[in-house]
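Thread: Cytochrome, structure

OP (GT): Posting the sequence first so everyone is looking at the same thing. Length is 421 residues per the record. Can we get the structure tokens written out before standup tomorrow? I want them in the notebook alongside the other entries.
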Amino acid sequence: MSDTTGSTSSKTPPPGCPAHGSAVQLGGLEYQQTPSQLYRTMRRDHGAVAPVLLDGDIPAWLVLGYPEVSYVTSHDELFARDSRRWNQWPNIPADWPLMPFVGHQPSVLFTEGPEHQRRAGVITQALEGVDQFELARECQSIAESLIASFGGSGQTELMSTYAHALPARAVLWMCGMPQGSADTEQLVDDLRISLDAGEGDDPVAAYMRVGERIMQLVKEKRDRPGPDVTSRMLQDPAGLSDEEIVQDLISVIAAAQQPTANWICNTLRLLLTDERFAVNVSGGRVSVGDALNEVLWLDTPTQNFIGRWAVRDTQLGGRLIREGDCLVLGLAAANTDPQIWPESHVGAENSSHLSFSNGEHRCPYPAPLLADVMARTAVETLLERLPDLVLGVDPSELTWRPSIWMRGLNSLPVQFTPAVH
């Protein structure tokens, strides 16, 4: 692991930066369908830290190595989270597609130091108040109502009818939204659109509606608190403002919804296409747990995360990283780093993957446990209610979404014996 050294800082990378002359475009068909091969090629050609080009040929670094990602995420004093440090802002157009991910917002995601500890502490305390058994019961109830809506038809597309809806409803229940109401259903739909827009959707308008409804929820809970995450955040002695709570609640909801939806769907894909699980999945819960963990290693829902920004000139993986450079955390590449998996055998037995990141900005405890409750309950309930569930198309016909950030299927069509209620 390279040590870090400070040197004279320069605000922008040199125009003829040799590393970025051979930079890899982050995107394209190969990335969509077989990113693991691309990571292998990049690792071979560039080592643990590769020069890449984001949308519009904006230069950045993709951190591919497990030790290097661990180092970046555990050294906030060198690689910080406030994107206003970026040396590329003069080159970024206002309508840049990645602006929602990197444009500075007053949320916990972009805070640093004592302010981050204060904001993250409030979220942690609020999430620790969630009873995991109660959450599992609620998830089972949500799962059963979703299954009832398509169970009589003998076929469905699980991404839209099940995997996306369940974590959205579950996290809104945790936050104190009334279940089954029209405005909760509208919020579930707006969350999907703002995080994962389809053809004809308006993600910006949907995101605005999400913000307005969460602000309304915060006002309701200030007047009438309940046993929920929003009320606990409001009552925390840290005394966050309503605006701060709205921003942080949106971060919590977004982090719970889409990654968990992809975790559920990627696990179901593995269970339905891999013969190791086919034999005993209907009988044994153990294999569901194995599949959930294996997906976090091999098809992690958040495959890349943008990002960190260098506080000063420093060395990483043999590269000179300039002050203000952007680093993309290659979580999927790090999870399959051959340095930690000799002979390319990735064992699902342990859970030291980086799927929930690492360091101070990792997913706040106990969020990964709550996500596991949601995903496990979703998968187990579906397999118990529809025991003869099979894939509705040939496995080769399944396609991945064209995202370099999230690892998720476009659709997961299935067939089963219609359930009689």
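GT: Both are above now. Quick notes for whoever picks this up: The chain has one domain: 18-415. Residues 18-415 form a domain with the Cytochrome p450 fold (CATH 1.10.630.10).
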